[in-house]
Every structure is written in C-alpha cells, then in structure tokens.
Amino acid sequence: MSERFDVVVIGAGPGGYPAAIRAAQNKLKVACVDEWRNLDGSYAYGGTCLNAGCIPSKALLESSELYVRAKEEFAVHGIGVGTVTLDLAAMQKRRASIVKTMTGGIAALFKANGVVGIPGHGRLEPGNKVTVTGADGGRRTLEAEHVVLASGSVPVRLPAVPHDGKVIVDSWTALEFDAVPPRLGVIGAGVIGLELGSVWRRLGSQVTILEAVEQFLPMADQAVAKEALRQFKKQGLEVKLGAKVARATVTGGAVGVTYGGAAGEHTLEVDKLVVAVGRRPFTSGLLAEGTGVGIDARGFIEVDEHCRTAAPKVWAVGDVVRGPMLAHKGKEEGVMVADLIAGLYGEVNYRAIPSVIYTAPEIAWVGQTEEQVKAGGRPYKVGTFPFAASGRARAMEAGAGMAKVISARDDDEILGVHVIGPMAGELIAEAVLAMEYSASTEDLQRTMHAHPTLSEAIHEAALAADKRAIDSINR
Ligand code: FAD
Ligand code: AMP
C-alpha cells in the first residue's frame, strides 16, 4: 500500500530539512526521508552539516581555541591558571553531545511542524513515487505530488591515497580522533583542511598542509589571503603551496606522503593523513531509470535558477546542485522551493552568499574580490580598516586582520566586503544585508555603529573607501 504526500523530501541535511519544515508551514502534507547513520548505526537527521561538518567542526574549533588562549593569552590579561591540561576525551564528549542535541532538535522540529520523518534510503521512481528502504530491508512506497532531492555531497577521494579509516582518513574521522596525532598531514588547503589543521595544531599536532595550487585561498580576496597565510604561519601551521600529492603509503602505523613541488618529488612522514580535497555531489542509488532528472558531467543534478530539475514537480537543492557547497545556501534553496511549491514567492540571491572560514582569525566575505572587480573593468574604490585600530579588538587581544570594502566609483554600489579578524563570520551579516537591500557605500557610512564594537571596522572601512575614515589614516 502506498502513502500519499504533497511533498516528499529526500535528505534531511540543511538543504532538505528546511524544505520539509517550510512546506509543512505552508500547510502541505510532508515526509522527509534520510539514511544518515552514525558510527553506532543509529539514524540521525541533519546530514553532513550537523553530524560530520559545520557543527562538530565548530565545537572543536571553539574548544581548541580556548585551550590555546588559556595557555598563551591568559597571562597577557594577568590571569594565571597554572598548567593548562588537555582532556581530549571530555572535549570529544562535548562535541558529540552538541551534535546529538542539534540532530535531536530536528526530530523535534519535524514533530512540531507535522513533518513525517522517515529513516531509510529513498529512491525516486518515475511518476514521483519514492521507495524507501529501511534498516531491516523493508520497503514502503510514498506517492508525492512534489519531490525535493537534497542528497548532499561526500568527500572526494584520491585514488593513490587509499583510505583505511585509521591512518588515512576523511574529514569526518578527523573530527573524531581520540588522541592528538603527533604529526598530522592534511591534503588540501581549502576551508575544511584549514579548519581541521587549525584544530589539531592547537591541540598539539605538528601540522603540514599540502596544497596542489601555488596560490593560497584563490577564492578569497588576495589581500585577505596574504594576511591569513601570514597569521597561520605565525601560529605554526605549515602550509606547502604547489605541493600536489601523488601518492601515500601506510607502513607500520605511519604514512609516507609523496608530493611534487617545483623542485621535484618530496616525501613527508606523518602519523595521520586527512584527505580534504573537496566534496562531490552524492546521487548514489537516488534515481531509478526513467525519472527524467538530468545529471551534469560533474555529477550535479541539473536545475534552473529556481532549483527545478528537468522532471516535472521534481526539485533539487543544496550540495547536490550547482553553486557553493554551503549549508546556508542549501537552506535558502530549500525554503525557496517549499514556497514555490505552495504558490508563494521564492528566490535565492546567489550574488549575496556569505563565505566564512572559522579559523583564528576568522575570514569572511560576500560579493566580489578586488581581483574579480579589477578583471571586470568597472572603476572601483577600496577602503580598509585594520583591527589594530579597533578599541574593542584590542580589548579582546584580537588586533590582527582588517575589514575591506570594495565599491563602484560610478554609483557607489557595494561590490564586495571582506573581513579577516575577530568574529568575521558574524560581522559579515551586516554586509550581506546591505548588499541584499542594495545599500550604497554612503548608506553604510551614514549608519550608526555602537562603540566600541567590532562592527565599527566595517563602518570605518566604508568611510575609508572615500578617504573619510575617522579612526585610521586615509591612504
Ligand atoms: P547533506 O548535509 O550532505 O545532507 C544530505 C542528507 O541526505 C544526508 O543525511 C544523507 O545521508 C541523506 N541522503 C543522501 N541520499 C539519500 C537517499 N537516497 N535517501 C535518503 N537519504 C539520503 N558549510 C557551511 O555553510 N558552514 C560550515 O561551517 C561548514 N563546515 C563544514 C565542515 C566540514 C568538516 C564539512 C565536511 C562540511 C562543512 N560545510 C559547511 C558544508 C556543509 O556541511 C554542506 O554544505 C551541507 O551539509 C549541505 O547540505 P545538504 O542538505 O545539501 O547535504
Ligand atoms: P576545497 O575544494 O575548498 O574543499 O579545497 C580542496 C583543496 O584541495 C583545493 O585547494 C585543491 O587544490 C586541493 N587539492 C586537490 N587535489 C590535491 C592533491 N592531489 N594534492 C594537494 N592538494 C590537492
């Protein structure tokens, strides 16, 4: 016997679960199917983000940062705490408990909103039917008016770097190490590699990050990237650029990594190796023959700007479709689709998606980099403000970094805002809102910011774009 729903969502990560909740808020009958299982075999909602990505990484980044600050910074404040010790088991227990609370929160939200959560593997059949296979192999069929595919992504693997789950691992395992590896290698200096490298460096590992590309953080504004590299090196994080890993071999509990640089091949020996070379869309077992859903050459489900696939009333959102693989991008797509299904207005502004790297200092930006603006040929102006000149940042012992505003010379449009410094991920929200509302640089300049706050850095950077900064020298 099949059950009928207005909307069936496959995947309960940050793309799928908001789609399900919003659809239910729109008075539709909704089911959300998810197959995520944790290492103990239990099902959990929340996808990569809650179980193995955003949330556990931020829990460990916070704990490890506190550990370093207690060890290295408290004395500067005149606080003596004796010998600071690390209880990794307790730190990991906290991380696991945060994840459990958050994933349990989604189950509670489903219940409160009337979403039927179904653990198991979902497969789209022609005619908008979804078959769900449970843990015991039992099957049920759901009939849906609309289907939302939100199956997410999985880590990319390098064929010559075979994972064994113990010594050569992916980002998920690297979040769950039960001992600090004395020597840690990370392949890939992207967001995930830098965050994981930071965690274990702070907890005592000697960390080497191997990055194939010569340029550091090519997607970021290069003034920010340069400052970030300088800060990371100062912290003892070794980043080798132009170091493309060719192969890795495990011998006696250690791993030899061979990488090529300008001066030929080199070898690095480490105790654990994390492969963080990006993620790929995940559609394994998702689509039966003849659904009409298209997949592009890179494995992404093809969609239009409203996340419609080629099949009628089948939508796809999140990491499994084009665009940056970010939780908030998936969330906004999920909400948009649920509103469009209900006949409401829905749109995602792909030009105002914030990016955040949760290192110390944090890095965040929205809009175009100076390099992109320059390449576009539109005359522009730039204002920067160093956190060294911010009273609040100084009080926080966090004077490294800067805020940077890039604006059009012709009509004052804000083209990009870049921050490296304390709480950059929070500060960038103001810039996203400004761009969303098409605020001009002058609007930012005329907006009052509380003193002393970190947000003044964005205010001052906007003023500096017209050489009208008050708290720093205009250049
Ligand atoms: P996912 O979160 O991958 O969820 C997909 C879900 O669908 C999974 O639960 C999966 O089991 C399920 N599924 C797949 N196929 C089926 C099927 N056939 N049937 C049933 N269920 C299925 N992003 C940020 O924005 N900020 C961060 O700080 C951040 N940190 C990260 C840190 C790490 C270490 C990693 C790995 C990622 C991080 N990300 C971060 C990226 C973020 O996790 C993803 O962008 C986000 O999870 C994508 O959401 P999604 O819903 O598209 O997919
Ligand atoms: P991201 O896609 O942001 O998660 O970053 C992944 C990073 O891994 C990119 O900067 C890639 O250049 C890098 N990368 C991919 N393959 C290799 C490799 N074989 N050796 C070293 N770095 C790699």
What is the overall number of helices?
13
Q: Per DSSP, what share of the residues sits in E-state strands of 2 or more residues?
A: 25-35%
Distinct ligands, ions and cofactors found in the model = flavin-adenine dinucleotide, adenosine monophosphate
Low-confidence stretches: none
Mean pLDDT: 97
- End-to-end separation: 73 Å
Question: Care to count the β-strands?
Answer: 22
Q: Structural class of the helix and strand makeup?
A: alpha/beta
Radius of gyration over C-alpha positions, nearest whole angstrom: 24 Å
Helix content: 25-40%
CATH topology of the largest domain: FAD/NAD(P)-binding domain
Instruction: Report the sheet with the most strands, covering strand number, pairing sense and barrel closure.
Output: 7 strands, mixed
Number of domains: 3
CATH structural architecture of the largest domain: 3-Layer(bba) Sandwich
Q: Please, could you describe this protein's structure?
A:
- There is one protein chain.
- The protein has 13 helices and 22 strands.
- The protein has helices spanning 16-25, 47-52, 54-72, 88-113, 171-174, 191-202, 222-234, 327-341, 370-376, 391-395, 424-436, 441-445, 456-464; strands at 2-10, 30-34, 116-119, 121-125, 129-133, 139-149, 153-155, 168-169, 183-187, 206-211, 238-241, 244-251, 254-261, 264-270, 272-275, 279-281, 314-316, 355-357, 362-367, 380-386, 402-408, 414-421.
- The radius of gyration is 24 Å and the shape is globular.
- It is an alpha/beta fold and 475 residues long.
- Strands 1, 2, 3, 4, 5, 6 and 17 form a seven-stranded mixed beta sheet that branches.
- It folds into three domains: 3-155 and 280-341, FAD/NAD(P)-binding domain (3-Layer(bba) Sandwich); 168-277, FAD/NAD(P)-binding domain; 355-464, FAD/NAD-linked reductase, C-terminal dimerisation domain (Enolase-like, domain 1), CATH 3.30.390.30.
- Helix 1 (16-25) packs parallel to helix 4 (88-113), helix 1 (16-25) runs parallel beside helix 8 (327-341) and helix 3 (54-72) packs parallel to helix 6 (191-202).
- Adenosine monophosphate (AMP) binds next to helix 6, strand 10 and strand 12.
